[in-house]
């Protein structure tokens, strides 16, 4: 990286590599959370998706931050079953497209691009903060990223934990009604892992 505030393609490749390792490590916990209020496949699906992302990016690393994220998003959409593939794929692709062709970006530019990516996820899933979905972690994380990587990480973790008392209004968990209360949302939990990996890559 040229300057302390410049994030180049190598940084984004590192972020996704750290994220893939985190998903692999936490896959069983994610599936356990999903077995309570979902299809019990969230961890396995994401593990497969991020392994494919690592494989693809390793073979032919894209040259710009935007291209790295677009390629990763495309791979997730084609590899991951269920809702999480299209949602995570949309998040990364839209964020990548918002970054454009710049060879490097600032944290502030990434925060603005991530905000666009998160908004696209909200449109695709028809969800908003408080519906007990990945947006409960992603929306505050994108806001926090404007301040610092650490603030984004803390906001995402807080957001994921805040889903426990909520009643699910979207996705598979919403079919459970009141029974969805008392469980942490797996999508918000995996989203927090992704943001945690971003902060780790920046450190």
Layout of secondary structure:
Blueprint: E1 7-8, H1 9-37, H2 42-59, H3 65-79, H4 84-99, E2 104-105, H5 107-125, H6 135-145, H7 149-161, H8 186-202
Antiparallel strand pairs: 1-2
Helix pairs in contact: 1-2, 1-3, 1-8, 2-3, 3-4, 4-5, 5-6, 6-7, 6-8, 7-8
Structural notes for this entry:
The structure is a single chain. The chain has 203 residues and is mainly α. The chain has a single domain, classed as Serine Threonine Protein Phosphatase 5, Tetratricopeptide repeat (Alpha Horseshoe), CATH 1.25.40.340. Helices cover 68% and strands 2% of the residues. Strands 1-2 form a two-stranded antiparallel ribbon. It is globular, with a radius of gyration of 16 Å.
Number of domains: 1
CATH superfamily label: DhaL domain
Find the count of extended strands (DSSP E, 2+ residues). Answer: 2
Mean of the pLDDT scores? 95
Tell me the fraction of residues in β-strands, as a range: under 5%
Report helical residue fraction: 55-70%
Number of helices: 8
CATH topology (level 3) name = Serine Threonine Protein Phosphatase 5, Tetratricopeptide repeat
The H/E string reads EHHHHEHHHH
| Largest β-sheet summary | 2 strands, antiparallel
User: Which CATH class is shown?
Assistant: Mainly Alpha
What is the alpha-carbon Rg in Å? 16 Å
For the largest sheet, list the strands in their spatial order: 1-2
Uncertain spans:
none
What would the principal axes of the Cα set say about the shape? globular
Outline:
This protein has helices spanning 9-37, 42-59, 65-79, 84-99, 107-125, 135-145, 149-161, 186-202; strands spanning 7-8, 104-105. With 203 residues, the chain is mainly alpha-helical.
């Amino acid at each position: 990286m040229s300057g302390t505030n410049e994030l180049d393609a190598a940084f984004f490749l590192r972020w996704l590599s750290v994220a893939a390792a985190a998903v692999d490590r936490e896959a069983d916990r994610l599936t356990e959370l999903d077995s309570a209020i979902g299809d019990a496949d969230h961890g396995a699906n994401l593990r497969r998706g991020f392994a494919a992302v690592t494989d693809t990016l390793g073979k032919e690393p894209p040259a710009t931050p935007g291209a790295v994220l677009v390629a990763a998003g495309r791979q997730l959409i084609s590899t991951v079953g269920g809702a999480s593939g299209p949602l995570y794929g949309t998040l990364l692709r839209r964020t990548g497209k918002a970054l454009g062709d710049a060879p490097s970006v600032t944290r502030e530019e990434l925060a603005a691009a991530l905000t666009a990516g998160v908004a696209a996820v909200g449109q695709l899933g028809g969800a908003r903060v408080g519906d007990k979905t990945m947006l409960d972690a992603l929306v505050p994380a994108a806001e926090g990223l404007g301040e610092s990587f650490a603030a984004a990480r803390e906001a995402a973790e807080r957001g994921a934990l805040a889903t426990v008392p909520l009643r699910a209004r979207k996705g598979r968990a919403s079919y459970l009604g009141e029974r969805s209360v008392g469980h942490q949302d797996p999508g918000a939990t995996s989203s927090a892992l992704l943001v945690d990996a971003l902060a780790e890559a920046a450190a």
